[in-house]
Amino acid sequence: MPKRILQGVVVSDKNEKTVVVKVERRFTHPVMKKTVRLSKKYKAHDENNAHKVGDTVFIQESKPISKDKRWVVVTEAQASQ
């Protein structure tokens, strides 16, 4: 099964080798027919501490890295495959 890739914005880079990425999804409410925006935060592994707050990044599912981390930041080239 292919690994999911999500796009989001880095909201925190205070941890070592970890960034917190906020992923927003938009959908139409089934009853109200209004566009709803929901966001969720994911902790992602950033090996070289390359990304800063405000950067738009792609994250990909991976095996568990720590208690909370199950995602890895991928580069633009890897995300487009």
TrEMBL record:
Keyword Transport: no
Pfam families for this protein: Ribosomal_S17 (PF00366)
Example GO biological process: translation
GO molecular function, one term: structural constituent of ribosome
UniProt GO cellular component terms: cytosolic small ribosomal subunit
Coiled coil feature spans: none
Keywords of this entry: Ribonucleoprotein, Ribosomal protein, RNA-binding, rRNA-binding
Cell membrane in keyword set: no
PANTHER family attached to this UniProt entry: 40S RIBOSOMAL PROTEIN S11 FAMILY MEMBER, SMALL RIBOSOMAL SUBUNIT PROTEIN US17M
UniProt function note: One of the primary rRNA binding proteins, it binds specifically to the 5'-end of 16S ribosomal RNA.
HAMAP family assigned: Ribosomal_uS17_B (MF_01345_B)
Family per record: Belongs to the universal ribosomal protein uS17 family.
Name of this protein: Small ribosomal subunit protein uS17
Gene: rpsQ
